[in-house]
Design a protein that fits this description.
Layout: H1 6-14, E1 21-23, E2 26-28, H2 31-41, H3 47-61, E3 79-80, H4 88-100, H5 108-121, E4 125-126, E5 130-131, E6 147-156, E7 166-173, H6 177-190, H7 194-202, H8 206-222
Parallel strand pairs: 3-6, 5-7
Antiparallel strand pairs: 1-2, 4-5, 6-7
Helix pairs in contact: 3-6, 4-5
């Protein structure tokens, strides 16, 4: 899952950098705790570490190394360059409403409640004016398929550590932990580029945003 070898994981455990327990002289890791920890760490990971997690999840899910996982989720009806919200709450409601337009959401209320609960625990805002709202856990009963909403706003206070307003939002939700973590890792890896972020902020249409994201995912996989 981490794309790391045993030695590195042991060092992380010894330094208390990763949740674990030591039982009988051996480190024990709880899958749910590691999943939660990974979700919170990805936004601040280096490009190298994100690439390792991406590769680790590819192996964990037993999928091809060149599998596109963001591109298939991009739907024109779930992308906007002009989200009109001005508060954190209204932004989450509008993002979930966009997700519902795809026809893949069984329970809109459950999805909204899940992303709201995740934000209450810890903001999903990252440095650079980006946020990736997502449920804390998969929602197999609320969505038919994995979803991704991409939206741009004029900028709202969303809790970013650098104090900047957030202008780009990527709402994602999956039906299982593996796909969920893989999507987050790939997204963070794609967004780890200031020039690319600048292009997204300047895009004039939803179709242009989709084209930029498709090209960027292919570029990342070729690295």
């Amino acid at each position: 899952m981490l794309g790391a070898d045993v030695r590195r994981v042991e060092r992380m455990a010894q330094r208390g950098e990763i949740p674990c327990q030591k039982v009988g002289g051996q480190f024990r890791f709880n899958r749910a705790q590691i999943t939660e920890w990974l979700q919170q760490q990805m936004g601040a990971m280096s490009h190298e570490n994100l690439a390792q997690v991406d590769a680790g999840m590819t192996a964990h899910r037993q999928t091809p190394q060149d599998e596109l996982i963001i591109t298939p989720l991009l739907k024109l009806e779930a992308v906007t360059t002009s989200l009109g919200s001005r508060t954190k709450g209204s932004t989450l409601r509008e993002l979930v409403s966009l997700a519902a337009r795809t026809g893949k959401v069984y329970d809109e209320h459950a999805l909204l409640e899940a992303v709201q609960h995740r934000e209450e625990l810890c903001s999903t805002a990252m440095e650079g004016g980006i946020a990736i709202p997502h449920p804390r856990r998969p929602l197999p009963d609320a969505i038919a398929e994995p979803i991704l909403v991409v939206a741009r706003t004029q900028g709202i206070a969303f809790g970013a550590s650098d104090g900047r307003l957030t202008t780009l939002f990527f709402l994602t939700a999956s039906k299982d932990d593996r796909h969920h973590l893989h999507t987050l890792a790939r997204l963070c890896r794609m967004l780890h580029d200031e020039d690319f972020i600048g292009h997204l902020k300047e895009a004039e249409t939803p179709a242009e945003i989709i084209e930029l994201l498709i090209d960027r995912e292919s570029e990342v996989l070729a690295q």
